[in-house]
Amino acid sequence: MEARYRSAKTLQATFLERYSENGSVLRAESGIAYFRRSGKMRWEYERPERNLFLVDGKSAWFYVPTDHTVTRVPAKQSGDLRTPLALLAGQMKISRICARVEFAEGEKPLQEGDAVLHCRVRAQKQSRGSRESENALEVSESDEIVFEVVRDSGELTRLIVRQAGAVEVEFRFENWRFDPAIPESMFRFEPPAGVAIVNGESADEKTPSN
């Protein structure tokens, strides 16, 4: 899996994201995700409504067109559950977030023959100001991460993050493309006119875009 993704400078895939609590799916969304070295991501949600989650390497942006508002936070402070997938746009070292990886006994794969693996989350001890801390993954040690890969190719087909309170976020991936031509401009966010920017560190501060 590491070798498969580390060799690519850009990636593209269709995705399905499901948010569940106590075993009940509360929200399901789908769209197209793009990844680019180093640490850049663009998630274009198409259904049930359009919105955008973008990481440009420094900031994470979440834009909901119907709200005319975009939220911005420093990427290294983002606790968003999509952040473990930043590995796909970086050096692709599972050991950065997993202290140990083992077969997930009792987890049924989506596709027969796939490998389902369990990640024991590593304590985050990066020093402030280092390159590692700039791309730190905000995953709690109490979280459980399960990922499924195709044995022959190493392609990622599913990733699940389970948190306290019976909260689960699942990502399913299909139609992976390796090294597609994706312009750098797709990983820059330009707020449309009239859209307010809410700084995540201080939600009370709103800066109208030019």
Describe this structure in words.
The chain has a single domain (2-208), classed as outer membrane lipoprotein receptor (LolB), chain A, CATH 2.50.20. The protein has a 13-stranded mixed β-sheet, with no helix packed on it. The protein is mainly beta. 24% of the residues are buried. Residues 126-138 and 202-210 have low confidence and may be disordered. Strand 12 and strand 13 (206-208) form a beta hairpin. 4% of the residues lie in helices and 46% in strands. The chain has helices spanning 2-6, 131-134, and strands at residues 10-21, 24-36, 40-47, 51-55, 59-64, 69-74, 98-103, 115-121, 144-149, 156-163, 167-178, 196-199, 206-208.
**CATH fold description:** outer membrane lipoprotein receptor (LolB), chain A
Mean pLDDT value:
82
Q: Based on the structure given, which CATH architecture is correct?
A: Clam
Task: Give the overall shape.
Answer: globular
Give the amount of beta strand, in percent: over 45%
Number of helices: 2
- Point out poorly predicted stretches: 126-138, 202-210
Helix vs. strand class: mainly beta
Can you tell me the CATH class? Mainly Beta
Any idea what the CATH superfamily is called?
A: Lipoprotein localisation LolA/LolB/LppX
Biggest sheet layout = 13 strands, mixed
What is the topology, as strand order, of the major beta sheet?
Answer: 7-8-9-10-11-1-2-3-4-5-6-12-13
Helix content: under 10%
What is the rounded Rg? 17 Å
